[in-house]
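Lab notebook page, bench 4
Experiment: in silico fold of construct C2
Operator: M.H.
Input chain length: 162 residues
Purpose: comparison with the prior construct
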Amino acid sequence: MKKYIVIGSIAAVGLGILAVLRQFDLLMQHELKVVGKKITKLSSTNIAFTIFVAFKNTSLISFNINSQSYKVYINDKYISEAFSSKAITVKSKETTVMPVNVDIVPQNVIAAIGSDWATMILKPETVNIRVDFEINLSLFGLDIPVKNKYVTTLKELMSLKN
């Protein structure tokens, strides 16, 4: 009889581990999407805006985001970096919208893209924007870095609601 209890206990622990691993896998299959923007400052020396990023959590695990780091590239040329250390709680099976503040110096953009600035204005659909990001999660007392990238065009980004 003890043999069956031991075998049953091992099976229960194994199934529990598989369930946790499945939820962790679902967590890593998250979906990030830019859902809005808000321009806070627009001048010849500084462009400041907030991008609203939706984090879709498909797992049954709730967690905290301790920090976010974003590097912005236009046509594969580094432009700017954004960082937020505001703690955000992401609940299971929910989408959480996170604000990310971005400051850009127009002179740095012009220096990075060179003569392509006219194309940016006249053909925004040809301007590729890539954002490499790292989000640091706190889960079960562990800090877990999650890296990914978001790719869009200037035209798509400008069409988002303010």
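Observations: The mean pLDDT is 77. The first strand starts at residue 31 and ends at 42.
Next step: discuss at group meeting.
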